[in-house]
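Page 37, continued from 36.
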């Protein structure tokens, strides 16, 4: 039977995951909030015309 607590003690994240995390946090990424703000701004501009 697997002892999950022992397995968790031995767990070490792979280097690939750490590298990916660093790459993600070092770039400014557009998220859904940014997309929605841009869509709302464009809609307001169209209504103002």
């Amino acid at each position: 039977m697997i002892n999950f607590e022992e397995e968790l003690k031995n767990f070490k994240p792979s280097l690939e995951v750490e590298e990916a995390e660093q790459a993600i946090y070092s770039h400014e990424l557009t998220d859904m909030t940014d997309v929605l703000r841009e869509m709302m701004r464009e809609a307001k501009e169209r209504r103002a015309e």
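The CA atoms of residues 21 and 46 lie 39 Å apart. Flag for discussion at group meeting. The mean pLDDT is 86.
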